[in-house]
Amino acid sequence: MVLMSVLVTGEAVALRVQPAHFAARALAAAIDLVVYMIVYFAIFISAGWLLSYARFEWSLIGSSIMILLTVFTTVAVPCTVETLMRGRSLGKLALGLRVVREDGGAIGFRHALIRALLWQFEVLATGGSVAALVGLLSSRSKRLGDMLAGTMAVSERAARLRHDQVVLHPHLYGWIQQADISPLPAGLHHRIVQFLSSASQRTPGSRTERAVELAEELNPHVAPAPPPGTSPEMFLGAIIARTRWEYVDRQRRADATAAGFRNRVGTLPHGLHLH
Q1: Which residues contact 165 (CB under 8 A, 6 or more apart)?
Q2: CB count, 10 Å around CB of 136?
Q3: 187, 99 in Cβ contact below 8 A?
Q4: Stretch 193-205: mean pLDDT
Q5: Average pLDDT of the chain to the nearest whole number
Q6: Which of 51, 105, 238, 264 is the most buried (most CB within 10 A)?
Q7: β-pairing, 151-155 with 5-8?
Q8: Residue 76: phi, psi to the nearest 5?
Q9: pLDDT tens across 72-130, in order?
Q10: pTM of the full predicted structure?
């Protein structure tokens, strides 16, 4: 059974999401911890080599270097990664997780910084025991950093769209058939589908702002650009319509291949069976 949670946006739009499972969050945190420790030791060894090469007296500045490197690898690096990757890290990317605001929007620098600051205490200083205890007691597997930052981790499982929520405008028919679309990241596809499914419930300003934000993120994956007169929401709908059409076409070809194989099996000599 998949447990769903409901996030309510600032426009009172209810979004159904799947909170990240506790085990998935723990494994993602373990992957991140290993990666950041590798980065830490690599930087520490490099800094020690440079200082010895420059003939600095390590005993005089060793403590300061240790503090700076610790802050850099446990606060600055995780904060920068989550900000630039829109709520994801290497561990979350591997497990299909993403950190979002409590209203479902992408996190910003402030959210990532609060989470990174608390990560030192919850995970590093206590060996993950505090994060594990708080996560087990939270209905959405939140840790203290999430509670203070107003965020939560969700599973990036694509939502389902009704047919009437995917609109391909006539003037885009020719363009969408010729457009070159690179594989979309699962998180981006999920956010576009989620937006289209709730667009009619948003205020006009919020609807336009969110469509522009998603269209800008989608642009690098599509060439050439859509024809003049295409709004960001038309652009998003056309891309989802194309991906849906390609999925249906792949399924049709797979069914046809399976049917052909069954017909060939039916012509095998009597008494010959496949196991």
Answers
A1: 196, 197, 199
A2: 9
A3: no
A4: 82
A5: 78
A6: 238
A7: unpaired
A8: -65, -45
A9: 888 999 999 999 988 889 999 888 888 988 777 788 899 999 999 998 888 888 888 88
A10: 0.54
